[in-house]
């Protein structure tokens, strides 16, 4: 095993409370490794995680770089709550430039990796350059080493993790790795985390973080440590942790409860968003899933245990096992592809995890290809003899491998729905369901207009997580869902809050209990920094403005803040012909820009831009 460089960091000096206090910087081109202090000024301004990652990306990445070039920068960043004994706070962020969208990308995951990175003495890792040959990075107790990865290049993510754990003689090491899809630069390749941890595994799924790792020739990062995170109020932290554990209990169902809810609302995208209801929903809902669940798994220090180890016994997909599937994956390989066989969905999910693919984009692009085939835009010659019809679960599952290895039709689909549609032509772009190149997930926005605005203005492309208005528009019905009224402010407030939550490391499953006040309390207990809720939300606004500034720097403007023609113009037949329409959409967008303090082209004002630049460049 070749060791390229070792760094040892002494963390005995004073550090920020609640943080590890150091950032690891790895130049893969030269093999050099160094560390710097986590800057308190930026931590106060951007918290950690997503916010601090965006700040470092602005400072470290040159304008106009190709996402798959050595000029791109990949940042892993934890938050001040990551690694603490607080439930639902195990998440951390990857921040980079996306090969799928060509713009700013943030992607988060839970598990144990983030906690163990902080225990190892680092708040984050910044990867730059490109290695001449495959490598993997080992981080342990203030030390970091680059090792030759020739023996593990080509392995799937689970095999990679097992191999590294054996090399290190430690089954408790956390590993973030890519599979063949990342190595083959599939534009929506994922990074899989904690595949063999014994707890909750997860994915840095959206936007192609795995392809960025593959382009840099780094196969995996392993972390472990025995350090302790010092906090301002240890007694207060333990008291809060006990309080939250009482409220955040075992979740028996997880996100699949949404299958029935969204289907009944008539906005469950079916056959590539041609319909909003799926006749086979009862065969893939939470009740149907229960008989496949063998155990519950949890992330670091979490009492919710939202992870579900699902196993298929017997039949065509015998032996398929996965931590999941969640609601979005059930949708992407279910209704999106016209599949009502739960076993097939589990199998597709498993192979996506092993090969390292985002399940949302993979299922979306397969459903798109199925519609192209049924419309005669793809022939059997194009598909390699595959009968690519909706409902053909065997073909859907089989295409996962073809995409990961760029075989046959899979090579085209590996570029993403938008690029595939442009190459196919003949009107295919009109039903390529994406925003800025990122495939839309499992909520048809014609059934909740706030989601339409949220998709169009999400900081990373077509994403539901940055402004999940479903709770207000569909579940609690606080807003009329087929209306523009109040939606601009609803979306903006959600986006600002999500920026704060992602910067702390909060999980979606904890949001029902951990709100703004609790986050302010967590920061005070951990770091000793007392901020009001309004100040916290101002930080969220600052983070979102910075992300927009990064997007604008890459050429994003108002014309990109839009939706596919099918979503804007075509009615949903099951919702009495409901359609958003360009006039309604533009009205919401105008109001949104005004509330944000951006100009009519969606650019932060000169004053906002200068404020951010001064803060980042001081």
Major sheet: arrangement of strands: 1-9-8-13-10-11-12
pLDDT below 50 for ≥5 consecutive residues: which ranges? none
Strand content: 5-15%
How would the global form be characterised? globular
Radius of gyration from the alpha-carbon trace, in angstroms: 23 Å
Number of domains: 3
CATH topology (fold) name of the largest domain: Aldehyde Ferredoxin Oxidoreductase,  A, domain 1
In this structure, how is the largest beta sheet organized?
A: 7 strands, mixed
CATH homology superfamily name of the largest domain: Aldehyde ferredoxin oxidoreductase, N-terminal domain
Tally of DSSP β-strands: 18
How far the N terminus sits from the C terminus, by CA atoms, comes to 42 Å
Percent of residues in helices comes to 25-40%
Q: Multimeric state of these chains?
A: single chain
* Mean pLDDT level: 96
The CATH C-level class name of the largest domain: Alpha Beta
* Number of helical regions: 24
